[in-house]
Amino acid sequence: MNFNTNNSLDSVSTKGTRSKPATTAASETKAPAAAPAPATPKAGDQVVLSEQAQTLGRLQSKIDAAPDVNLDKVAEIRRAIAEGRFEINPERIAENMLNQNDLLG
Length: 105
Hints:
Layout: E1 2-3, E2 9-10, H1 51-65, H2 71-83, H3 90-104
Antiparallel strand pairs: 1-2
């Protein structure tokens, strides 16, 4: 006997050629198994988030509450840069960066 590519058995004739594969009876075919039902939560089940997950949740809340970009202010800064009157204040930048770090912690 030989196996064909459909994984069914074929008989081999005396001339070495394959005969047609046998057909499967309808009673031999199986219906696909039903998916298991999802587990239902019990009254005492709880979810506890890690400290990192809680921190990420707080950060997401702060991001969601942050104002959108002020396009008028961006346009004014672009004009000031183009006109050469925009001044960079490193102390103010550093102070704002430190204040942002306080907000994140």
